[in-house]
Amino acid sequence: MMKMLRHKDILRTGRQIHLTRATLTPARPKALHDHDFFELLWVQNGTVRHHQQTGITTLQEGDMVFIQPGQPHALQGRGDHAFVVSICFHPATIKSLAKRHPSMQGHLFWSPTGPVQRHRDMRQLAALNHAAVQLERSLGDTLAAEAFLLPLCAELTADAFPPDMPTWLAAACLAAREPDVFRNGSAGLVAVAGKAHAHVSRMMRRHLGQTPSDYINAIRMDYAARALATDSDAVTQIAADIGIPNMSHFHKLFRATYDITPLQYRQRFQRQIVQPV
Q1: Measured at the alpha carbon of residue 226, what is the angle toward residues 225 and 232, in degrees to the nearest 5?
Q2: Domain boundary among 124, 156, 188
Q3: Residues 144 and 172 in one domain
Q4: Looking at the structure, do residues 130 and 174 belong to the same domain, yes or no?
Q5: What is the rounded distance in angstroms from the CA atom of residue 80 to the CA atom of residue 47?
Q6: Where are the alpha helices (DSSP H) in 19-176?
Q7: Same domain for 10 and 45?
Q8: E-strand spans in the chain?
Q9: Least reliable range by pLDDT among 72-81, 115-124, 218-227, 263-272
């Protein structure tokens, strides 16, 4: 009989994540298990056999898997020192992200098929593990979960546009991630697209479910959040750097994205930075 794991039995009240580190034995799993939460796992060391209903996949160091509810699976170590890291995410957190960031639809946790597998090289794996430590030390709330997930998902989906999306639009969206473009707002995106604003807007809604302004502002807020967490520049300077000198508008956009003010974000995340000795 398949075992069903439930988030209410794993996540403490108020927490949106639960991180586990485990050394896997070479014993074949007796059965697959399912769960009502979303799970991200990656192989930190060794080789792992990932059992699914559709067959068995071999995972190597640096391989990561995004697993949705309703995708039964089990893990088995191969040889010695098969070590994995697994994070359970509350389903509400993942569903909320997809609502606010439609460009994630069809990818990773939101793929119509799965589980979805990706790979991290040595440098990327080190960054992933550092982010996991920060997540482990956090309150484990929605903000912490999103602070971990958003940069990762943004990187993994950076070049993953819908297959039927026009080449010119994909190129414009990639160019829009550069400060020289996003500082000019939606006008900057439209300019690099080389098309009429109405046409760009119509095509973005069709293929990404977003307006040019939505797309640009998401990039701006991500840039601002990283600056707040790592730099000492004044909030007014950061807002100006991303092309939003109107502080009222900047605060409104930032709160809509992260649910706290820019200053609160800085106070929370700069405290967690480990300074070199």
Answers
A1: 95
A2: 156
A3: no
A4: no
A5: 9
A6: 91-100, 122-137, 142-156, 167-175
A7: yes
A8: 3-5, 17-24, 33-35, 38-52, 55-60, 63-67, 73-89, 116-119
A9: 263-272
Q: List, in order, residues 6 or more apart from 117 with CB less than 8 Å away.
A: 57, 59, 63, 64, 65, 66
What is the tens place of the pLDDT at every residue in 230-253? 788 899 999 999 999 999 999 999
What is the amino acid identity at position 97? Answer: L
| Cα angle value 157/44/136 (rounded, 5°) | 75
> Domain check: are 175 and 128 in the same one?
no
The DSSP symbol for 108 reads G
162 falls within a domain = no
| Distance from C-alpha of 193 to C-alpha of 172, rounded to nearest angstrom | 5
Which residue is listed with tokens 């956009």? 253
What are the C-alpha distances in Å from 180 to residues 177, 186, 191, 200?
Answer: 9, 12, 12, 19
Domain that holds residue 226: 167-270
Return the CA Rg of the chain: 20
Examine the pLDDT at 27 and tell me if it is beyond 70.
Answer: yes
Give the end of a domain, one of 96, 129, 156. Answer: 156
Residue 140 in domain: yes
Residue 275 covered by a domain = no
| Phi, then psi, of 152 in degrees rounded to 5 | -65, -50
Cα 31 to Cα 24, 76, 113, distances in angstroms: 15, 11, 22
d(CA 42, CA 118): 9
As for how many domains the chain has, the answer is 2
Paired tokens of 137? 């030390």
Q: Are residues 122 and 258 in the same domain?
A: no
Contact (CB, 8 A) for 24 and 75: yes
Q: Is 70 part of any domain?
A: yes
